[in-house]
Amino acid sequence: MFESLTITTILFILFFFWQNKRLGLTSEVPLDPNNRVHYFASECLTTLKNLLPRCHVRQIGPSELSFAGPESELVQKLYVKDGQLWLKKGEARESAINELGPQGEVHFEKTSETGLIVTVEAKTAEAAHKLSVRLEVSYA
After folding, report:
1. Whether residue 1 has pLDDT greater than 60
2. CA distance 139 to 67
3. How far, in Å, are 42, 54, 118, 135 from residue 130 at the CA level?
4. Structure letter (DSSP) for residue 31
5. In the chain, pLDDT over 90 holds for what percent of residues?
6. Residue 103's Cα: distance from chain center in Å?
7. Contact of 116 with 127, CB cutoff 8 Å
8. Averaged over 14-35, what is the pLDDT?
9. Residues 82, 111: contact at Cβ < 8 Å?
10. I need a labelling partner for 51 at 20 to 30 A (CA). Which of 30, 40, 89, 93 fits?
11. 3-state secondary structure of 47
12. How do residues 82-124 score in pLDDT, each as one tens digit?
């Protein structure tokens, strides 16, 4: 009796572990297409909200932004390439900081002398999600 209960318990644990992996319930990036683009857009917007407030914007384009931090003179550049948001610091270092999906985009728009609207659109073939935020910046 005890052995059959133990074997049944082990089989239940293995079954639930397999289901968890198959459905991606504990993975960092969701497997469901709608939840995946929501995750991409949210993570990208969170990164931009931590990076851009009170920065000094040097140059703004529809999908790229050059800026310096509030206490720094190092010019950094944000742009989208191959479905990822990239950050280039200074002349040499550039790195991908967020995934947006193959057709994802980020748009920057000057709204006033101290306002910047950032729109993040995460997009895959199956789903899309768009988020926007207004940030306080200064323009050079």
Report:
1. no
2. 9
3. 9, 23, 11, 17
4. S
5. 61
6. 13
7. no
8. 81
9. no
10. 30
11. helix
12. 899 999 987 778 899 999 999 999 999 999 999 999 999 999 9
